[in-house]
Amino acid sequence: MKRRNPLDRYAKDLAPGTVRWIGVRPLRREPLQAVSEAEACAGLGLEGDHRMGKTPGSGRQVTLISEEFIAQIERFTGLAAIEPGLLRRNLVVSGINLNALRRQRFRVGEAVFEATQLCHPCARMEEALGKGGVAAMLGHGGLCAKIIEGGAIRIGDAITVVESSHE
Prior knowledge:
Layout: H1 8-11, E1 17-24, E2 33-35, E3 37-41, E4 45-46, E5 62-66, H2 67-77, E6 91-94, E7 105-108, E8 111-118, H3 124-129, H4 133-137, E9 143-149, E10 151-154, E11 158-161
Parallel strand pairs: 5-6
Antiparallel strand pairs: 1-2, 1-6, 1-11, 3-4, 3-10, 5-9, 7-8, 7-11, 8-9
């Protein structure tokens, strides 16, 4: 059951976002492979992603970052353009405030996710983005989520909050 969140009453007012990019990593430490769609498997992760073989029920089955956060990271690093796969997140979205989704359930395509925690940058961001990469991502690393209901997700799918039953 979803944990009560004092911000639940405001989340329903979030405008929908859009999936812009999807990536899966077949093996740990390997580059992400961009795909146009993926199957979200409840309690496990995205089909084809190495996280499927990790601890079932983990709160880090899928990671998300927004184009808006990427723009901030570009500004802070001075890089003109950052390829989504460099940031090691599964989904790039736009048009929705990811931080407002924390501890919320939301639908992407046929699947339902629950944002569990902030996705902090790892030390590999120094290698991927250059010196200062981790600092540039602080507060802009996106979210981790678990999959509550499985289903297909595709580029262009809307991201909408699933209203809480605690109201």
